[in-house]
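Take a minute with the sequence and fold tokens given here and flag any structure token that looks odd. Thanks in advance.
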Amino acid sequence: MSLGTILVILLILILLGVIPSWGYSGNWGYGPSGIVGTILVIVVILLLLGRI
């Protein structure tokens, strides 16, 4: 596995953990999931451009 693939898998797992539908993260709002989602999009774009 390449570093980029590992980063994408890790960010997807983190994104699933901060979704506000879970009990412990229900009052966090959409801030954490929005930030992790943005980072995930940036990493995918960098992977497609061959920078990672």
